[in-house]
Amino acid sequence: MTVTDGGCDYAEFAALVGQARTAAAVGAHPAAAESLRRALALWQGDPLTGAAGIFVDAAVTALETERLTAQELLAEAEIMQGRYPAAIELLGPLAAAHPLRERLVATLMVALAGHGEQAQALSLYGRTRARLRDELGVTPGADLSQAHLRVLRHELPGPPPATTTGPPPAAVPPDRPDPALVHWSVHPPAQLPPGIPRFTGRAAALAELDALLPAEPAPAPTTVVISAIGGTAGVGKTALAVHWMHRVAARFPDGQLYANLRGFDLDGRSATAGEVLRGFLAALGVHPQQIPADPTQQAGLYRSLMYRRRIAVLLDNARDAEQVRPLLPGAPGCLVLVTSRDRLTGLIVAEGAQALPLDLLTVEESRQLLAARIATTPDLPLAGHAADLGGTPGQLVPFAAVDPRTDVRVVFSWSYRTLDAAAARLFRLLGLHPGPEASVAAAASLAGLPVPAVRPLLATLVEANLLTERGPGRYDQHDLLRAYGAELGGTVDAVDERDAAGRRLLDHYLHTARAADLGIDPYRLATPTPLPKPDPAVTVPDQSGHATALAWLRTERPVLLAVLRLAADGGHDWYAWQLAATLVTFLDRQGHWHDLAASQATALAAAQRDGSLVGQVQARRGLAIAYTWLGRTDDAAAEYRCGLDLNRELGDREGQADAYLGLCWVLARAGDLDGALGRAQSALALYRAVGSPAGQAKALNNSGWLQARRGEFDEALACCAQALDLHERHGDRHGAALSWDNLGYIRHRLGEHRTAAGCYQRALALHRRLGDRYDEADVLVNLGETQQAAGDRAAALAAWSEALGIYEDLGHPDAEQVRRRIEC
Hints:
Layout lengths: L2 E2 L2 E2 H17 L3 H13 L12 H27 L3 H14 L4 H13 L3 H19 L5 H12 L49 H8 L14 E6 L6 H11 L8 E5 L12 H11 L11 H12 L5 E7 L2 H4 L10 E6 L4 H7 L2 E4 L5 H13 L6 H9 L15 H11 L4 H10 L7 E2 H8 L3 H13 L4 E4 L2 E3 L2 H14 L2 H26 L25 H24 L3 H17 L3 H18 L2 H17 L3 H18 L2 H17 L3 H18 L2 H17 L3 H17 L3 H17 L3 H18 L2 H17 L3 H18 L3 H10 L1
Parallel strand pairs: 3-6, 3-7, 4-5, 5-6
Antiparallel strand pairs: 1-2, 8-10, 9-10
Helix pairs in contact: 1-2, 2-3, 3-4, 3-5, 4-5, 5-6, 5-7, 6-7, 7-34, 10-11, 17-19, 17-20, 18-19, 18-21, 21-22, 21-23, 22-23, 22-24, 23-24, 23-25, 24-25, 25-26, 25-27, 26-27, 27-28, 27-29, 28-29, 29-30, 29-31, 30-31, 31-32, 31-33, 32-33, 33-34, 34-35
């Protein structure tokens, strides 16, 4: 590389690569490609030619790695424009030279498939996987596995289809990429909250933070930089941290992670390391089903993903050093910034964190801040500001200095006092919402207004910077604003009015979630308990149709879990266990088994306080399902047995049958086929006695499955044929798919391979239509076995490869068995 009058061309190279990453993060792929071409054009031969020594060798290696990364980024930018041949031309020689660099191979696979060469892409995957196993003793990582899955599904990134009419599609926010379509390395996480538009002062603190980083990025950084900003509440720790993080974001092109640890929230619910780690892992491209159950393993996976990447992490509002320690990446080149009211002495002593105590603003800084704030509310007389700051008696008198958040209330009040009465009321009521986001329908229910009437009020709050619209019809608030609104409501609104609004909010989520639950599976073992009609002022959106219901549940999942905790903590135990019951099927089928276990534990405690045996039965069933998938089979069996005893106490024979069928499932997974068949037959007898066709179909299907594995094929055929008839007669597509799968297995064992394949294809089509990922993979494995037995090895390998991709996507242990089938 050549040294010029302006310095070294490495600095220009690094700046251009940083510009490219920023452009790619917002979807400007042509600009990203152009910056990368200019960066790579700076390379002229080998770096540091003529120099020698071990330090030079290390620097050369680091520089070559950065060059290779830039070439990968250029290929990804070409792919995002649909320029697959250009990406193939660039990556082909590089992959030959670096056959074990997974990100490079993954990108080449996507380019090949995009160019119509899917077979070559899959062959490349197979060769790479074999080399990883033989030479390194490892399996493909997240980059390669996700590329394999996209190739199998024909879900490839590229330019949107051309349109001739209508507005252009909205850009996908960089912190919410579609994991099925966008490679996360092209769209690194960008989770920092919005910067402060009129940030004032803190010159000395900013200088101290700047000193943490070298003047120029080191080619091969050797340490992780940790800094702790401490100070009292309201002093501006978060504002300073966010402002500085935005200033240096370009120095960390692999992304920025953010978490509010809620260490000093008024409700006492601080974030756990597991909650934060799961959020970070998801932002780094790990699917929920791939996240380990053990918190230590979660932390290990997090550190592995951070290795050799330049990522900045902002941990806001930490309680103490112990809360922070599991979230430290430990990766050279990463930055961690922590804010806390605690001094975090343990972090400073043990982890080498740099302390930055933050005091009040100087007089001059305070004057600048006040001038900037007053300029935002020109219609409010200066006398009003003086009254607020001077403590003149008024509506803010109840916010006394005993609460540590008083520093910000006056500032918030300037925006609040500009609102009309209706918007001000809505702002106060939104303080009752737990977050993280509220929909228009939820806001309308809180206010007891129709949706058309609440939309302009929400727009007013957004304009006043008291609310942020994150997406169409989705609004969130900073936790301090939410707390301020709640406290205002406690002084302005009548208790009865606030209680009624809170019940309307719970009614909205409970009734909408119940409708969505029935939308994704109208045929379930546990019959939902009837709900009283909601308050007439509650908005319940239409959830008809499987796709609509599933989309709503996916969007609202974090909100529903927060509302569940809100109900339980607020003494609304009936709402808590009822809401939890509506989430069982969704969380189970989507693989959110950690959330399922936590929500059902909350529900069980609520149902016990409520004295509801029905609620306890439902919660124990949900816990049993979660424990089964998490490998806790003994705990799962215990929960089903407790549920069986409770149903006997209730005299609920259908509930007893449900428990027997659950025990059948657990015993079958443990290999006890005789015990499982006995439970299935007990369930069948009870379902027949109470006249439940849906229950009979499920019990018959389970019996047929178990009889087939015992070699009793005639009995198995009869049971599964009856089950299929009942499922199809009552429109249960999921149950019908399971029956077709069982019939395929029986026909396969009887040597009727063509018939068996037809049965499996019927099951596969139904599972795909319903989005049942695990069941889809299970049927693909069975189909592959039949195709191989029929002599069609190529078709079998294709089916198993697709199944393997799904299992790897889900992080399911069955992936290893399928991998062995392919490699035999």
